[in-house]
Amino acid sequence: MKVILMGDVRHTGRRGEVVEVKRGYARNYLVPQGRALEATPGNLKYFEQQKQKIEIKHEKERDTAAARAAEISAVGIEIPKRVGESGTLYGSVTAGEIAEALEAKGITVDKRRIDLGGGIKSVGEHVVRIELHTEVAAEIKVEVVSEQ
What we know:
By secondary structure, the chain is α+β, with helices and mostly antiparallel strands. 34% of the residues lie in helices and 30% in strands.
């Protein structure tokens, strides 16, 4: 089934593209979520009319995300965790813990946007990527310290 993507969809395509997807994926996920329209001649004509408005909105979102990325990158957080005798953590640092630490500093970030890249399982300083927009990501320094 051919659909017009109304926004960037990971592993599917970018905003404005006409892509071929499985019928169930389109009917059960993309269309109900407002992420796509069926690629009918009427919808193609409608999308061409709305394309400039969508591009302006996309640029505003990207600029806002870039400003937030600069704000987030300037902040560093410290997370205390229980540590074993060999210096390894009991468990690992989760995206939820990082989101809570950022929230305590006055920065709200959805934990699903935090990319731990394999997890944080040792004491020390780690760089964590936060995807704020499809084109903008912030990097934050997370220091894991021993809880005493």
